[in-house]
Predict the 3D structure of the following.
Amino acid sequence: MRVPDKLLSNPSLSCVRRAMPVSPVTEDTSAVIPNLGGTTEHSFALSKMLRAFSMPEIQEENKMKLEKLVGDRFKERPSDCQIDSHAIMVRGGYIKYMANGIFSSYTPTKRITKKIEQIIREEMDKIDGQEVQFPVVMPASLWQESGRYESIGSELLRFTDRNRMPMVLGMTHEEAAVHLVREYGKSYTKYPFMIYQIQTKFRDEARPRGGLIRVREFTMKDAYSFHTSQEDLEEYYDKCHKAYENIFRRAGVPEVISVKSDSGMMGGSVSHEFMLLTPVGEDTIASCKECGFNANMEAADSIIENTRDEVSAPMELVHTPNIHTIEEICDFLKTPKEKSCKAVVYQRNADDSYIVVFTRGDIDVNETKLRNFVGCEIHPAVITEECGLNAGYIGPVGLPESITVLFDTSLQNTNNLSCGANKEEYHYTGLDIERDCGNVEYHDFAKILDGGICPNCRKHSISISRGIEVGNIFQLGTKYTKTMGMTYLDSNGEEKTPIMGCYGIGVGRLAASVCEAHHDDYGPIWPMPIAPWQLHSCAVRSDDADVKACADKLYDTLQNAGAEVMYDDRQVSAGVMFSDADLLGIPLRVVVSPRNLKENCCEITARDKSFSYKVPVEETADKVMSLINELMAKYND
Ligand SMILES: [Zn+2]
């Protein structure tokens, strides 16, 4: 069998990755170096330089044989991995656990995250972002300026250096961003501007989980924009929203959706999270298929419609021994849960004081909404004998004054409800809150229901799903600029405070999320734009001279054309070879084998099994290059 000299017939295809022009360079470069009259040393340096120029850098970088790839791959699912992407990334030689929420990355992960970072850079630069870098370790004093040194809990890692200076490990960099530009931004003429970095951060999570999904040490792109008006911020925020859509599309996950979110401790007003929907996600999302509304459960307004019975019965005390729950009282009275008033009790973390939230019996409390309303950290209550509450019998009539009582909007326009009587073994029937509790204010503390009313289009069309947050954008406002004393002079010479936006993407988390959303039983199916390599070349039976020669030649040809090839020429069984290839999840695979060569063919298959071609040997490289281009183009606009 003859291996064609020229596997790649169409040189115009060699443009996959801005490959530099390829020119043959021999080891002995002296022949092509003109004598410039320099010393021998000089011409040696020059020859080295010329070689560096003519030898395409990309080629060296892409050279990779599986035999040499550091990291082990194995079959068994590790018992400590709860989600598939974590198991796959351990089994496939992507990451290695070092400590709780702390991982090292092997080369495949590094190559994936590098590509993600490059996509992010390009999109951030397109919206006039300027890449900067903040330190990982910062003095506590900077965080004291913003007030977060005190307000953030133990997720902020605090320590002292050798001079007993209190320091922190950066978990976000708002303070550092303001610190960097507060002198620069003294005049309105400098605005707007945006700075961003891609940096390692540390957040001392209580419960790291899911491999790279929730870790303590992670790499993030964080961006900070500065504006002189809310309108300008909003305009830029929309641009950034579009840039994020581009990033996720180009990274191969166009299915990422943006949802309205609660901005929590970031302290802003308008914010969006970008979610990759997957059943293992930590976040709950309310979506409406009718109008396209999406919101994080924590931020979705709950709308409940009630109709009052025509006649309000009087309140009556009912003896209800051994009845404690909403289910039990509704069973006992033979009424639906909607006709009951439920009490949920919390305590403020700071002083353990009690908060009772009343909701309609079928509605659950959304703790984030409650936390935002009361403005402090809370926890589910421990009900003691002395606290004045009768566990299982708590109702809105006759509670001690010392307790904060809140009513959810789900109780608006109701009557004839059952509720606790604040007396051991007794409930009331016939509760009419307006009549019996005086002037009551209702607020939204409820979790939106599956099948509930869409706050946007008002249809009963809400569905609940789960997702992983892969990015977020916030309209921060003046929280940091104000506390840290950043000001500028406007066109009238008046001192003003700039308005900020901030925009994050978790790089490692995005890689793991793509794996979670795109995998089968055998491994990940990486989208071409972020795949660790573009082609996995398998020389099956590489002890066969023809196979080896053909596969070697193909490897060299594709390398020279600028393709990123993982080459497996190990003398192992086809089974081992293919299961390793599945674990590396490279989107394209070419198989050179004695059987294929008998037909003068190579076999090209897709990792996602969407196609499989037998291609004549001499057309294989061309076909591979055009498939790479096609699969890259799929994610461009
Ligand atoms: Zn809707």
Remarks:
- The first strand starts at residue 64 and ends at 65.
